From TrEMBL, chain A:
Residues 505-602 form the CCZ1/INTU/HPS4 third Longin domain. Residues 311-329 have a biased composition (Low complexity). It comes from Betta splendens (Siamese fighting fish). This is Hermansky-Pudlak syndrome 4 protein. The lineage of its organism: Eukaryota, Metazoa, Chordata, Craniata, Vertebrata. It comes from the Eukaryota. InterPro entries: CCZ1/INTU/HSP4_longin_1 (IPR043987), CCZ1/INTU/HSP4_longin_3 (IPR043989), HPS4 (IPR026091). Residues 350-361, 394-406 have a biased composition (Basic and acidic residues). Residues 13-118 form the CCZ1/INTU/HSP4 first Longin domain. Residues 255-437 are annotated as: Disordered. Pfam families: Intu_longin_1, Intu_longin_3.
From TrEMBL, chain B:
One of its GO terms (biological process) is melanosome assembly. Residues 260-269 have a biased composition (Polar residues). GO terms for molecular function: guanyl-nucleotide exchange factor activity. This is Hermansky-Pudlak syndrome 1 protein isoform X1. Signal peptide: none annotated. GO terms for cellular component: BLOC-3 complex. The gene is hps1. Residues 2-157 form the FUZ/MON1/HPS1 first Longin domain.
């Protein structure tokens, strides 16, 4: 990771995993139960004290309440707790951090472990404590690497600085991912650059999990560790086994487009897509064709014709399957009417904007459908003028010669994907029958994480386990994306580091709850004196918003600062205005500057792509 | 599912309060193996077994890490709040989601306050308090716990139903003329007559007030009395309500119903009735009256107190016996906490009560004891910090002065019936060590003896004020005839007003009067924190009565919003935010706290201290946060009288914010106009 961890920015002061099953008898020393303790240099008697006392109290409380303990608070520390069959996890933070955040961090940590190692009990049966301790340490340091205090409050995915990246590069990344998905064994993917997300098709939680492995391989300079292995295709490709929960897998497998599109009689272009799914792919688009036989929906057939058209006109630059889809007889003629093609471009841009986290990429922030039209301009420019793209197309076509089996239309691809995955899930250990079980009690399904590194750029794909043995698919995915990745990497690398501009007379933080991203003008370094009141207020308000669903807006004022917070299902935004006369008598006064914060926030944040209207 | 437990460090249960749900869940866990009729000990055993590991872990963590538990949360949202005071651990549990963290912590502090008011300075000595809270005799223990449980139940009922207990400030009945007449009556006729009567047995009535349900109709303090603190006044209202619960509040299942399901069949239940002849008022005293001689003395420190009890017998319950309460007194020479008073609650009619507070004749002893206790505590602290010799006594009562005064005090005590042998022994030993030539002098070795002296002093205090002395025949309080006379006098005066007052207390001020000026305003609460008084439109929702908000779910919903708003704003205030506005669902809430000087000039909003999450709850009942806040704020306003106000409003969310803020401003300036009469 780019940022180094400084001691005072540590989110967590203690973390331990204690296995109660090892300490059953009277004489069993507590140390036998300690699977991992952080910080590792803690004296053993202190480790024993904490493990023994907290686990004991936790068990006692769970007995009285007939429910596992979630949090234990002391005067100087608070602990998030997880108790599952004899395992006892505790993660201790300073009392300043909201309890919701601490609990979230612990869940993340445990889920990360399960993602890479499978069920905890099984891992400890198969492996010794030391290698697994190294794993915990690695995940913990990864999660703690977010150095700003705000990142302690919101667990967010770290993305490219959107204001600094050409939106077309993001579009390109999205299209690379879509292209990879043409292989039915590929579930979803994401593209990372220097430890930051460029584009992803996965949920924020899953993306965060995938990023750990990426940073690990990055750190160990391309030497995969653990159960991972280098691919036969190229040294830059590696893979590792990962474990998905059933719900994660279902989310990935769900064909999210179908239902909203076929059931709605008056489709409104952007709204449903944003609500229902995180990513759309070309194959998804095409698959609507087969599903939208609903005669009541007159818009739907029109939509279906976008797919081939898009393949032809737009994604031929990037997509390996462009030529094939155009020659596919089952697809409508490539030259569709102009309005459709326009709409198709819009759709493609819209979605790529969406899932590459850059709804605000164009300065003005084309969040709404209308504004997307402006984004089309540069798109066509690139198509015409980008030599890289042309070059890539040539490469792509060359690479495609070997793959015939995936040359059928998008729709059938989707079907193949679905059917390939379905049995797999069933064939794998059936839920509840001796299957590996994650801490939440749901079965964990083994999958493979495929990583293709091009210098600082990484393409990470979640693939079916037998993908690696399917040489044709591996080669197809590898070769189809190689050129585009090289191009993208070169572009991203050439982006000059952003010159930090004047932060403006205000502070803000905008957390996108759906994408899990945080936008802020707060500098990353911790403990900035003037920022502290803002962070404190944000932390308080965030807890309040989390606990009170009906709460929409809040203004809180102390002697030094007034902070406005607003929250909806999709986002949380916090705003503080600097300067101005903060002297006030505290009595109600409508001329008080604190009460103009909502309108100021609406106005000021527009230019950061935050729309509070 | 609710529970409050006080345990000693060795996990001995000193008190517990549980609701039926909690009892049931405990009993289910332990099966029904316990025999019928053994309800109490069996339940006490199981609760003690369940909580013992937690209590013991508390002290382990404290000893070894210097960090104690403050709260636990379970995945099913069961909440545990822990609080350690000296050698006692308080644990409050909620499993039904009705109480939040702040509510539970507040309950613990209120319990602590009630114990202080009932046991005074005995609370300063853990071993003595432990014995006081857990009498060896099971019957007495049951009676004492029943009484404390009743008080806690009453408090919880008031907190959940009464806005004045929600914000912890006293609500007055708004009727200036009547109020004035009553005060005059209390001053000129009642108190004067009582204090000039020969039947007062040396007691002097200092304060007299009339309560209509929980609201104050008139309050009179004699000139020689120091002001009664809001905290004490609120506690007294809880006690009065516990003795004579308002009938209107009895629609709901009261604390009695809850108790009767506790499964301990053999016990008779504490059921207060609005009559002075029942034994409720004495009930509270009984456990305190005759210390039965069954104590087993493990602790040599405490030995003296026991001997003195050997000869005592339990006097017959006397309905006219007042309640002994320990209240704060601010004298010329400083603040004296926990000074003994006699509390007389005389019911006039159901719902209307006359309360008299009298100073006991021997209260000077309490002041001396407190002075000595303080001196020894300071000495102990200095010795702990490593100061020895004369440095140990710097900045306080000099050791020789202390010696002289204490010698005199003991001599004086010896002449009374108080048994001072143990105190004398310990004091002699202390003197030998501290002052003897060639002795160790003022050194660390004295720390133990300081502790011992404190325990002995608390023991003396206990003898003087918690136990009726042997000569039970000599009246020590206002005679019952005198009490009756007082009762009749007030009844005669208020006869014509009685019904009006009962209605008025339910409709003190109403929202209707504000609707025209403040369209969109749903509710407000305004509190003057300097005087500890509040005003709010009535919001009582019971089965029979309807409020202006109507009945049923809507009214209940708004009420619950108001309650949660108060909690929320306290949470922000704790973190230093004195202005909060919230848009929540269809409502817009505002909260303001501000300071004014005496002439009504608005002072700058000062910085408000940030408190840790586990600090004492913000309020005035158990711990007066606002007194501390005012003192903190006044540092920058020397020579000025600073007043502190709070305003909470609930508006419809559709009203534009500017209008809402204008409303708030108008309310703030109108409600406490110099006339002190809020607009009606």
């Amino acid at each position: 990771m780019a940022e180094l961890m400084t001691p005072d920015s540590r989110r967590c002061s203690y973390f331990f995993l204690y296995d109660g099953s090892k300490v059953k008898g009277e004489g069993d020393p507590t140390r036998d139960g300690i699977c991992y303790f952080y910080p590792e240099e803690t004296p053993l008697d202190r480790q024993e004290l904490l493990c023994g006392q907290l686990a004991g109290v936790g068990r006692c409380v769970s007995e009285v309440s007939s429910s596992p303990v979630r949090a234990l608070r002391l005067r100087h520390n608070k602990y998030a707790i997880r108790m599952e069959d004899d395992f006892f996890w505790a993660l201790g933070c300073s009392v300043e951090v909201p309890t919701v955040s601490v609990c979230e961090l612990l869940d993340q940590l445990i889920n990360l472990f399960c993602f890479y190692n499978g069920p905890v009990r099984q891992s400890y049966q198969l492996n010794g404590r030391e290698p697994l301790a190294a794993r915990w340490a690695q995940y913990l340091s990864h999660l703690q690497s977010g150095s700003s205090e705000l990142q302690h409050i919101f667990s967010c995915v770290r993305t490219m600085d959107s204001t600094n990246v050409d939106p077309l590069l993001l579009l390109k990344a999205a299209l690379i991912l879509q292209a990879c998905q043409r292989c039915p064994l590929v579930l979803a993917g994401c593209i990372l650059f220097r430890g930051r997300v460029v584009s992803t098709q996965m949920s924020p939680e899953l993306t965060m999990k995938v990023m750990v492995h990426e940073s690990e391989t990055y750190a160990t300079s391309h030497i995969p560790s653990g159960p991972g292995s280098s691919s036969s295709v190229a040294p830059s490709v590696s893979s590792t086994t990962v474990f998905l929960t059933l719900s994660e897998l279902q989310d990935l497998q769900a064909a999210p487009v179908d239902k909203p599109f076929s059931s709605r009689s008056t489709p409104h272009k952007d709204a449903p897509m944003k609500k229902t799914r995180l990513s759309r792919t070309l194959s998804d688009m095409a698959s609507t064709e087969s599903d939208t036989s609903d005669p009541a929906s007159d818009q739907a057939p029109q939509k279906t014709s976008f797919a081939p058209c898009l393949s032809e006109s737009e994604s031929s630059m990037f997509s390996p399957s462009a030529s094939q889809s155009s020659t596919d007889p089952s697809n409508p003629p490539p030259h569709s009417p102009k309005p459709n093609s326009q709409q198709a471009e819009e759709a493609a841009l819209d979605e790529s904007h969406y899932h590459s986290f850059h709804s605000d990429a164009d300065g003005g922030g084309p969040v709404c459908g209308e504004e997307d039209r402006s984004a089309r301009g540069p798109g066509s420019q690139l198509k015409d003028g980008d030599p890289d793209a042309v070059c890539e197309t040539a490469l792509d076509r060359e690479a495609e010669t070997g793959k015939e089996e995936s040359s059928s239309g998008g729709g059938s691809e989707e079907e193949v994907g679905g059917s390939a995955v379905g049995p797999e899930a069933e064939r794998g250990p059936a839920p509840g029958s001796g299957a590996p079980v994650d801490p939440a009690g749901a079965p964990l399904i083994p999958m493979t994480l495929y990583l293709h590194r091009v210098k600082s750029l990484v393409l990470a794909l979640l693939v079916q386990p037998h993908f690696l043995s399917d040489t044709a698919s591996v080669e197809e995915v590898y070769h189809s994306s190689l050129a585009s990745l090289n191009g993208l990497e070169a572009h991203l690398r050439s982006i000059p580091p952003r010159v930090p501009g004047a932060p403006g007379p205000y502070l803000f933080a905008h957390f996108d709850r759906i994408q899990g991203t945080l936008t802020t003008n707060l500098s990353g370094r911790p403990g900035g004196a003037p920022q502290h009141p803002f962070v404190r207020a944000t932390s308080l308000l965030h807890s309040h918003f989390c606990n009170t669903e009906t709460l929409q807006e809040a203004i809180i004022r102390s002697a030094g600062a007034a902070v406005y917070g607003t929250s909806s299902v999709a986002q949380e935004t916090y705003f503080q205005q600097h300067g101005g006369s903060l002297r006030n008598s505290g009595i109600p006064n409508h001329q008080d500057s604190a009460f103009s914060l909502p309108s100021k926030a609406r106005h000021r944040l527009l230019k950061h792509g935050v729309n509070l209207l | 599912m609710k529970c409050l437990l006080i345990a000693s460090e060795s996990a001995e249960v000193l008190f517990h309060w549980t609701d039926p749900d909690f009892q049931q869940s405990i009993q289910e866990q332990y099966g029904s193996s316990q025999e019928e009729g053994q309800g109490l000990p069996a339940f006490e055993d199981s609760i003690s077994t369940l909580f013992a590991p937690i209590v013991i872990s508390c002290s382990t963590m404290m000893d070894r890490l210097g960090d104690g538990y403050t709260s636990f949360t379970a995945e099913n949202n069961h909440l545990y709040i822990l609080h350690q005071v000296d050698e006692c651990v308080y644990i409050a549990v909620n499993g039904d989601g009705e109480e939040g963290e702040d509510d539970l912590r507040r309950k613990i502090y209120v319990m602590k306050k009630l114990i202080e008011v009932l046991f005074g300075m005995v609370t300063l000595s853990s071993p003595l308090l432990r014995k006081e809270l857990r009498p060896q005799d099971t019957e007495r223990r049951a009676r004492l716990w029943k009484h404390l449980q009743g008080l806690l139940d009453t408090y919880c009922r008031l907190r959940d139903s009464d806005q004045s207990f929600l914000v912890e400030a006293v609500e007055r009945l708004i009727h200036p003329t009547l109020c004035e007449q009553c005060i005059e009556f209390l001053e000129r006729r009642l108190v004067q007559q009582l204090n000039s009567s020969a039947e007062r047995a040396g007691e002097e009535v200092l304060h007299a007030f009339i309560l209509v349900h929980t609201k104050l109709l008139a309050f009179y303090s004699s000139r020689s009395a120091s002001a009664l603190s809001t905290s004490d006044l609120l506690t007294l209202i809880v006690m009065a309500q516990n003795m004579y619960p308002s009938s209107a509040d009895l629609d709901d299942p009261g604390p009695e119903d809850i108790d009767s399901t506790s499964g301990s069949g053999q016990e008779s239940y504490y059921t207060p009735e609005p009559s002075p002849t029942d034994n409720d008022s004495s009930d509270s005293d009984k456990p305190l009256i005759g210390g039965t001689p069954v104590f087993e003395f493990i602790d040599p420190d405490v030995q003296m107190a026991e001997d003195s009890l050997q000869t005592l017998e339990v006097p017959p319950p006397d309905p006219s016996t007042p309640c002994r309460v320990f209240l704060e007194v601010s004298g010329k020479d400083g603040l004296y906490p926990m000074m003994p008073h006699s509390l007389y609650c005389l019911p006039l009619w159901p719902g209307i009560t006359l309360v008299l507070l009298a100073k006991v004749p021997t209260s000077a002893v309490a002041m001396s004891v407190y002075t000595f206790l303080e001196a020894f505590a300071k000495l102990e602290k200095r010795l702990h910090e490593g100061h020895e010799g004369s440095a140990a006594t710097r900045g306080q009562l000099s050791v020789h002065e202390l010696r002289h005064k204490l010698d005199k005090f003991i001599k004086a005590l010896a002449q009374s019936e108080i048994q001072t042998a143990h105190l004398q022994n310990v004091w002699t030993e202390f003197k030998n060590r501290a002052f003897a030539k060639g002795g160790p002098g003022l050194s660390k070795g004295l720390i133990g003896w300081c502790k011992n002296m404190k325990t002995q002093l608390c023991g003396i205090y206990r003898q003087c004020f918690l136990i009726e002395s042997g000569s039970a025949h000599v009246p020590r309080h206002l005679s019952s005839a005198l009490q009756e006379r007082a009762q009749t006098m007030v009844q005669d005066t208020l006869m014509d007003w009685k019904d009006f007052l009962l209605v008025k207390s339910k409709r003190n001020i109403t929202m209707v009067s504000y609707l025209e000026d403040f369209p969109g305003l749903i509710h407000f609460i305004c509190v003057d924190r300097s005087t500890g008084q509040m005003i709010a439109p009535s919001l009582s929702i019971t089965e029979r009565t309807t409020s202006e908000l109507g009945k049923g779910p809507v009214a209940q919903f708004i009420k619950s919003k108001v309650w949660s708003l108060v909690n929320t704003t306290r949470h922000y205030l704790r973190k230093g935010y004195s202005t909060v506005t919230l848009r929540d669902g269809d409502f817009y809430f505002c909260y303001f706290l501000w300071f004014e000087n005496e002439t009504g000039y608005k002072l700058d909003a000062g910085e408000i201290p940030i408190l840790p999450d586990d600090s004492a709850p913000i309020g005035m009942l158990a711990w007066n946060y606002y007194r501390k806040l005012l003192r903190y704020y006044s540092k920058n306003h020397q020579g000025e009288v600073v007043k502190c106000y709070e305003l909470l409003t609930v508006h419809l969310g559709v009203i534009p914010t500017e209008i809402i803020l204008q409303h708030c401003r108008q309310l703030a300036s109108k409600l406490w106009e110099p006339s002190r009469n809020p607009l009606l």
